[in-house]
Design a protein that fits this description.
globular; six-stranded parallel sheet; Rossmann fold; 5 helices
Amino acid sequence: MGKRALVLVDIQNDYFPGGKWTLHGVEAAADNAARLLAAARDAGDLVVHVRHEFASADAPFFTPGSDGARIHPKVESRAGEPVILKHQVNSFRDTELEALLRGRGVDTLTIVGNMSHLCIDAITRASADLGFSATVIHDACAARDVEFNGTRVPAEQVHAAIMASLAFGYATVQSTEAYLAERQ
């Protein structure tokens, strides 16, 4: 195995209670992400924070410069940890993420964050397409209810469907406990 990076995607204030776009289970997911962050730091792995801002102040959440667009205190970045600003769903699109990872010799990604059905799905699929090996920590990710064609789909089902799809063809999908046990 080559060098590993923990990539924390969009763990930002607007997704938490009191924010503009609250996710189901976000507090528990962030607690697990914080455990994984501590383990990655202890192991000397590269830690990369990805932060989303929309280009317009009219956006429903993550408006530029807002408190809601800031990284949540549970997983704040430290000096020396790169923070990638993105304006797209895919963390690789129009960012320096791929160059950063390749420049540091990273070939294995551990992915956590929000939202399971958009940004986590996109970065995981893109990482596979770019030749990275990926592990998604399912209980360190959160989703929200969605609606399609008059049918409401609960967040738990949205999350499960995405994790099943990623596990089938794009990544290893594990719990925080299983992942941390393997790393000891």
